[in-house]
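Would you mind giving me a polypeptide sequence along with per-residue structure tokens?
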Amino acid sequence: MVIIIREMAKDEAKLARDIGLASFEPVECLTFSKPTAALLATVDEQIVGMASYRIFSAKGGQKVGHVETAYVRKGFEGQGIGSRLYREVTDLLKKEGCETVTAIVKDDNVASWKLFQNNGYYVVGFLEMLRLYGFIAAVRLWFDSTLAVCTGFHMWATVPQKNSAPLGQLGLFLFLNVLILLPGLLRVSLPQLGITACALSLGLLTSVLGGWLATLCSPRRWDFRVAIGGLLVSLIITAMGGIFPIVGRFYPREYEHTPEFRRAMGLEGLGHWLAILLLVIVAIVFRGQWAFGETLISIGALLLLYYSLPFYPFQCFGGDRIWNCNKVLSTVTVFISLVLHYLV
């Protein structure tokens, strides 16, 4: 099989998009627009993969390349097509004068993790984007890349990064989740908002503790990291009267396609869920002794549901990890979460 990587012709844009839609989940397809510039992978003149891209202007006149969408057609996975597409589109953008190249990916997309790592990409946060590109370019990239609405997604860039300080990431995690509550001031008083913030922070800290304890059962090295995608969605949901937290969880430094890896990921997801479950039970037992007991129970039950559901946009909280590890266990966690959510 001869794989040819070439530039996309203008009249191929709709066909390339239509072929790629089958590679994405229904919700993800909503952000998959018709490409304006792309590299195509073809076999016998049939499109089997694509990597579309754009170029942004940033501070100091620098160019920033962005890989918008990449896919490999079903039936052609595991043949090195994705790796070639990423390598060649990255090289192309650098030859076009781009000092860095960026892309976004769903947090637990292991296949894309490997492709990014193999081609010199690293996870970057919004503060790093501000430092690299300036405020205007960073905000534009945040919106145009759809990172603002893609819950649980990370931004990757061809900029070497040191491992994030755990306490710094934890502080950012709590700060962002308190920040998304601010639109609630349109509906409730400041004291009530403070009670909600305390209850949410306690629930999220408890989940992090549970996830951390679960990682101690694995010989792998883990880093706690905040997924900056979906902040706009969280703000809008809060303004409408709900709560949808920013995702923060533990990610392994090395990725594998093995049953042992799936079990380790599933255990981390289960650790978060069990910790929240324990907190809800304790809050129910002592509900009359805590000033914010009822709020804690309500928020805890909501978090319990979020951390169990294995489909987008909730899967990034860890339910997908449990599902991929053990579908029966996943079904049990969803059932318990639904019962508690509606009972309390």
Remarks:
- Strands lie at 4-7, 38-43, 46-57, 63-72, 98-106, 122-124, 153-157, 222-227, 247-252.
